[in-house]
Predict the structure of Pentraxin family member.
Amino acid sequence: DLYRKVFVFRKDPSDAYVLLRAKLERPLQNFTVCLRSYTDLTRPYSLFSYATKAQDNEILLFKPKPSEYRFYVGGKFVIFRVPEGHGDWEHICASWESATGIAEFWLNGKPWPRKGLQRGYTVGVEAAILLGQEQDAFGGGFDVYNSFSGELADVYLWDVGLSPDKMRAAYQSLRLPPAVLAWKSLSYEVKGDVVVKPRLRE
């Protein structure tokens, strides 16, 4: 249980990452990923990387610069332009639905304009799921200059699109529906220089 704890990625740039294990029974037609990050990086970095053998950017949350997030599904991406952070925690949720190809992006509990992405696509199930690195090959192929340095917390993956109420609940750390990956029961393995520490502030 990582409640009120964080992963601290200590080095910049870094070859460290956290490998997550999810129990996925079937390919994803819908999903939501949420996480909280805290960093002063201005270079590109990867937050959440879900790769299959067929597609290294099956699901990817990537921040190429302080004013932009990229949300990938099946190797294609949409851009969400955001205000540059004020040196505080940023909470993001990204959800996607195959039937409509609608991609949703929420920053700090507020929705951004929805975009179209990969309608009719299905996300594969045999996945390597990593925090802190971007996979250019299944479970590897890292570029250290896309690595994350800073603190990560409250990582979740659901195999459904969350309702607006639940998106806000995730931001406020309230009760959430059962997840495929849940911060309070996370199955993970630290690879390299990552330390689990108590959260310094709410």
